[in-house]
Specification:
Layout lengths: L12 E4 L2 E4 L2 E4 L3 E4 L19 H4 L2 E5 L8 E3 L5 H4 L9 E5 L10 H12 L3 E6 L1 H4 L3 H26 L6 E6 L1 H12 L5 E5 L22 E5 L20 E5 L17 H10 L6 H15 L7 E2 L3 H6 L29 E5 L10 E10 L4 E11 L4 E11 L4 E8 L6 E10 L8 E11 L5 E5 L4 E2 L4 E5 L1
Parallel strand pairs: 7-8, 7-9, 9-10, 10-11, 11-12, 12-14
Antiparallel strand pairs: 1-2, 2-3, 3-4, 5-6, 5-8, 13-14, 15-18, 15-20, 16-17, 16-19, 19-23, 20-21, 20-22, 21-23
Helix pairs in contact: 3-8, 5-6
GO molecular function: lipoprotein lipase activity; metal ion binding; phospholipase A1 activity
Catalytic activity: a triacylglycerol + H2O = a diacylglycerol + a fatty acid + H(+)
Enzyme class: hydrolase
Length: 474
């Protein structure tokens, strides 16, 4: 394990497999040397010990998926480059590397599923990077090991350059948790990579550290980040809170995701780091949502629009609604389509998602003017129907209702506006409301957040409680 490489003393030389250890540095053929000098350790927020394990111990593998391989893959190796030349790898296609994080694998699960889905929408090379043996020990061990994994990915890219004159501008690295920083390490070693997508980059031992230690905007021509389990007081999560890309997305505030039931830890940061240093932690639902959102964004590109805000509080209050005239980026796979993505680094974007798959939602601001009621207690709702038979109901207001007031609310609707077939108004009474009471929606105005477009609907007459009233465009 990695603690075997904690060497005490000066100029103690030993050989371990193919690596040479001297002092507090370890060197591996092809990959170079790795020291534990600052900023790699011994700085605030990164008081960890140890050096990375040899690549042979981590049993790193690269599995190629293409449309020719179907649901299967071909194991290819930069060390044995003929495996690449004899595979279905094509230098005429773009290439994505998918890199898992701590206690995970690249042989099955979300990494393989991501490759297969990407191939459905684009004829490309997708390479699943597996470093399970280096990711299954303690968290500190895995943190040290990603430097070697990143170096191996960089070596693979350089091999593609030599074999095919393949440009880094054709490469997209997608990494989750520690895999995000692994992608950053590869990008630090090979300049000009087209894009890196960091899916909830790991926070412990990376938050607040210098750029060379973690993922940062200089690691690729474009870096986009999804924060889904950010450590944000008083909660302590597995992800980073600070911006670390060109576009940083904070769905649902970036810390706690709807639909997840696992508890978020609330403790001092130092206590949390001590906990994960000595134990093997298991995947968090909140932490995993980042790659689930990315996956679904491939299928529902318009359902993950990010709004430019400084804080989640501003987003909730509507300060940054609707999108500005230059538009908003889409979180996930199509973030690179945003024309202003490189305007500056550390651009923050906020959005809400649904609690359940496919997680997509469309932010709208609704205004309801009532008819047929002077003053009554109850709640008013809107029901959205789409062309595929899906229905979602949302409460707009409750309490004392009257027709001299316009009721307004921001809704994150799980029905795509482009597929909305009809909208209905519904009200429900309280126990004290008269049984024969009636109410209707005189007008319903909807502002669509992604483009500021208005839709206006009218109700006709009134309905009794619990009976939907069909709204028609007016």
């Amino acid at each position: 394990m990695c603690d075997k490489r904690m060497v005490v003393g000066t100029w103690i030389i030993a050989f371990y497999l193919l690596g040479t250890v001297a002092g507090e540095e370890v060197c591996y053929p092809r990959l170079g040397c790795f020291s534990n000098d600052p900023p790699w350790s011994g700085i605030p927020g990164r008081l960890l010990t140890g050096l990375p394990e040899p690549p042979e111990e981590m049993n790193i593998s690269f599995s190629l998926y293409t449309r020719e391989t179907g649901n299967n893959s071909q194991v290819i190796s930069a060390i044995n480059s003929s495996t690449i030349q004899n595979s279905h790898f094509s230098s005429r296609r773009r290439t994505s590397f998918i890199i898992h994080g701590f206690s995970s694998t690249g042989k099955k699960g979300w990494v393989v599923e991501m490759c297969l889905l990407l191939l459905e929408v684009e004829n490309m090379n997708c390479i699943a990077v597996d470093w399970k043996e280096g990711a299954k020990g303690t968290y500190v061990c895995a943190v040290n090991n990603i430097r070697v994994i990143g170096a191996e990915v960089a070596y693979f890219i350089k091999t593609l350059q030599k074999l095919f004159r393949y440009s880094p501008r054709e490469i997209h690295l997608i990494g989750h948790s520690l895999g995000a920083h692994t992608a950053g390490e590869a990008g630090r070693r090979v300049r000009g990579i087209r894009r890196i997508s960091g899916l909830d980059p790991a926070g412990p031992y990376f938050e607040g550290t210098p750029p060379e230690v973690r993922l940062d905007p200089t690691d690729a021509n474009f870096v986009d980040v999804i924060h889904s389990n950010a450590a944000h007081f008083p909660a302590t999560g597995f992800g980073m809170y600070n911006t670390t890309g060109h576009l940083d997305f904070y769905p649902n505030g970036g810390t706690q995701m709807p639909g997840c039931n696992d508890l978020l830890l609330e403790m001092k940061r130092s206590d949390f780091e001590a906990l994960i240093a000595d134990t093997t932690i298991f995947g968090s639902c909140h932490h995993s949502r980042s790659h689930e959102y990315y996956f679904k964004s491939i299928l529902y590109p318009t359902g993950f629009v990010g709004y430019p805000c400084e804080t989640d509080e501003d987003f909730k209050s509507g300060v940054c609604f609707p999108c500005p005239k230059q538009g908003c980026p889409m979180m996930g796979h199509y973030a690179d389509r945003f024309p202003y993505k490189l305007k500056r680094v550390n651009q923050k974007y906020f959005l809400n998602t649904a609690a359940d798959p496919p997680f997509a939602s469309w932010r709208q601001k609704v205004f309801i003017k009532l008819s047929g009621v002077k003053k009554m207690r109850g709640d008013i709702n809107l029901i959205f129907h789409d062309t595929e038979g899906n229905t979602k109901e949302y409460e707009v207001a409750s309490g004392v209702l009257s027709d001299d007031k316009v009721y307004t609310k921001y809704l994150d609707v799980e029905i795509d506006p482009q597929k909305t077939k009809k909208v209905e108004f519904l009200w429900n009474k309280t126990i004290f409301t008269l049984l024969w009471a009636r109410m209707g929606a005189e007008t319903v105005n909807i502002i669509h957040g992604e483009d500021g477009r208005w839709s206006t609907f009218c109700g006709h007459g009134t309905v009794t409680y619990g009976v939907p009233q069909l709204l028609t465009p007016c």
